[in-house]
Amino acid sequence: MASLSSCLLLALALLSPHAAAARKCDLQGLWRNELGSNMTLSALDASGTFSGSYHTAVAATNKQILVSPLQGAQQHTSAKGQQPTFGFTVQWQFADSTTAFVGQCFMDRRGKETLETVWLLREEVPSRRDSWKATRVGTSIFTRIK
To answer: Over the range 96-134, which residues count as b (16 or more CB within 10 Å of their CB) and which as e?
Structure first.
Protein backbone atom coordinates (compact mmCIF):
# COMPACT_ATOMS: atom_id res chain seq x y z
CA MET A 1 0.00 0.00 0.00
CA ALA A 2 2.83 2.40 0.84
CA SER A 3 4.39 1.66 -2.54
CA LEU A 4 1.16 2.59 -4.34
CA SER A 5 0.90 5.86 -2.38
CA SER A 6 4.50 6.71 -3.22
CA CYS A 7 3.88 6.05 -6.91
CA LEU A 8 0.79 8.27 -6.90
CA LEU A 9 2.65 11.11 -5.19
CA LEU A 10 5.53 10.80 -7.63
CA ALA A 11 3.16 10.84 -10.60
CA LEU A 12 1.38 13.94 -9.30
CA ALA A 13 4.69 15.71 -8.72
CA LEU A 14 5.89 14.92 -12.22
CA LEU A 15 2.65 15.85 -13.96
CA SER A 16 1.78 19.09 -12.14
CA PRO A 17 4.36 21.32 -13.92
CA HIS A 18 3.17 19.95 -17.25
CA ALA A 19 -0.46 20.62 -16.38
CA ALA A 20 0.34 24.30 -15.72
CA ALA A 21 2.43 24.51 -18.88
CA ALA A 22 -0.45 23.09 -20.94
CA ARG A 23 -2.70 25.97 -19.86
CA LYS A 24 -2.64 29.10 -21.96
CA CYS A 25 -2.18 32.58 -20.59
CA ASP A 26 -5.51 34.38 -20.47
CA LEU A 27 -5.53 38.19 -20.62
CA GLN A 28 -9.10 38.54 -19.34
CA GLY A 29 -9.33 39.67 -15.74
CA LEU A 30 -8.06 42.17 -13.19
CA TRP A 31 -4.33 42.98 -13.11
CA ARG A 32 -2.06 45.17 -10.92
CA ASN A 33 1.44 46.45 -11.69
CA GLU A 34 4.38 47.14 -9.40
CA LEU A 35 3.28 50.78 -8.90
CA GLY A 36 -0.26 49.83 -7.82
CA SER A 37 -2.06 50.69 -11.07
CA ASN A 38 -5.07 48.47 -11.81
CA MET A 39 -6.22 47.26 -15.20
CA THR A 40 -9.32 45.30 -16.17
CA LEU A 41 -9.31 43.42 -19.50
CA SER A 42 -12.35 41.93 -21.23
CA ALA A 43 -12.48 38.58 -22.97
CA LEU A 44 -10.99 38.40 -26.45
CA ASP A 45 -13.44 38.51 -29.33
CA ALA A 46 -13.14 36.19 -32.35
CA SER A 47 -10.55 38.46 -34.01
CA GLY A 48 -8.38 38.68 -30.89
CA THR A 49 -9.30 42.22 -29.85
CA PHE A 50 -10.22 43.28 -26.34
CA SER A 51 -11.18 46.37 -24.37
CA GLY A 52 -10.98 47.38 -20.77
CA SER A 53 -10.10 50.10 -18.32
CA TYR A 54 -6.94 51.37 -16.65
CA HIS A 55 -6.75 53.15 -13.30
CA THR A 56 -3.24 54.51 -12.88
CA ALA A 57 -1.75 54.98 -9.44
CA VAL A 58 0.80 57.52 -10.73
CA ALA A 59 0.58 60.58 -12.96
CA ALA A 60 2.52 63.75 -13.70
CA THR A 61 -0.49 66.01 -13.23
CA ASN A 62 -2.35 67.87 -10.53
CA LYS A 63 -5.68 66.86 -12.05
CA GLN A 64 -7.87 64.20 -10.53
CA ILE A 65 -6.89 60.76 -11.85
CA LEU A 66 -9.79 59.09 -13.68
CA VAL A 67 -10.29 55.53 -14.86
CA SER A 68 -9.42 55.53 -18.57
CA PRO A 69 -10.49 53.24 -21.43
CA LEU A 70 -8.14 50.92 -23.27
CA GLN A 71 -8.32 49.01 -26.57
CA GLY A 72 -6.03 46.20 -27.63
CA ALA A 73 -5.31 43.06 -29.57
CA GLN A 74 -3.65 39.74 -28.82
CA GLN A 75 -1.57 37.94 -31.40
CA HIS A 76 -3.16 34.64 -32.34
CA THR A 77 -1.26 31.94 -30.50
CA SER A 78 0.69 29.48 -32.59
CA ALA A 79 0.66 25.74 -32.04
CA LYS A 80 3.79 26.06 -29.88
CA GLY A 81 2.80 29.31 -28.19
CA GLN A 82 0.98 29.22 -24.88
CA GLN A 83 2.28 32.66 -23.90
CA PRO A 84 0.87 35.21 -26.36
CA THR A 85 2.05 38.70 -27.27
CA PHE A 86 -0.38 41.62 -27.17
CA GLY A 87 -0.65 45.38 -27.41
CA PHE A 88 -3.08 48.03 -26.20
CA THR A 89 -3.48 51.78 -25.97
CA VAL A 90 -4.85 53.83 -23.09
CA GLN A 91 -6.63 57.11 -23.83
CA TRP A 92 -6.15 59.06 -20.61
CA GLN A 93 -9.32 60.86 -19.50
CA PHE A 94 -7.50 63.38 -17.28
CA ALA A 95 -4.49 64.33 -19.42
CA ASP A 96 -3.64 65.24 -23.01
CA SER A 97 -1.70 62.03 -23.56
CA THR A 98 -1.94 58.48 -24.83
CA THR A 99 0.06 55.41 -23.82
CA ALA A 100 0.80 52.38 -25.99
CA PHE A 101 1.75 49.12 -24.27
CA VAL A 102 3.22 45.98 -25.90
CA GLY A 103 4.02 42.83 -24.04
CA GLN A 104 3.76 39.14 -23.50
CA CYS A 105 1.82 36.98 -21.07
CA PHE A 106 3.96 34.47 -19.17
CA MET A 107 2.87 31.56 -17.01
CA ASP A 108 5.21 29.95 -14.53
CA ARG A 109 5.29 26.27 -13.55
CA ARG A 110 2.70 26.86 -10.82
CA GLY A 111 0.27 28.52 -13.24
CA LYS A 112 0.92 32.10 -12.02
CA GLU A 113 0.45 34.57 -14.88
CA THR A 114 2.33 37.83 -15.39
CA LEU A 115 2.14 40.41 -18.14
CA GLU A 116 5.55 41.88 -18.98
CA THR A 117 5.17 45.14 -20.90
CA VAL A 118 7.07 48.05 -22.39
CA TRP A 119 5.19 51.33 -22.81
CA LEU A 120 5.47 54.67 -24.62
CA LEU A 121 3.56 57.64 -23.25
CA ARG A 122 3.12 60.60 -25.61
CA GLU A 123 1.83 63.87 -24.26
CA GLU A 124 0.61 66.79 -26.31
CA VAL A 125 3.10 69.64 -26.68
CA PRO A 126 2.47 73.13 -28.12
CA SER A 127 4.92 72.83 -31.05
CA ARG A 128 7.25 70.52 -32.96
CA ARG A 129 10.13 72.27 -31.25
CA ASP A 130 8.94 70.74 -27.95
CA SER A 131 8.52 67.25 -29.40
CA TRP A 132 11.82 66.06 -27.90
CA LYS A 133 10.31 66.10 -24.41
CA ALA A 134 6.89 64.67 -25.26
CA THR A 135 7.58 60.93 -25.10
CA ARG A 136 8.40 58.78 -22.09
CA VAL A 137 9.30 55.08 -22.15
CA GLY A 138 9.12 52.51 -19.40
CA THR A 139 8.32 48.97 -18.36
CA SER A 140 5.57 47.47 -16.23
CA ILE A 141 4.98 43.98 -14.91
CA PHE A 142 1.38 43.13 -14.11
CA THR A 143 0.23 40.25 -11.90
CA ARG A 144 -3.25 38.80 -11.88
CA ILE A 145 -5.54 39.86 -9.04
CA LYS A 146 -8.63 38.02 -10.36
So the answer is: ebebebebbbebeeeeebbbebebebebeeeeeeeeeee
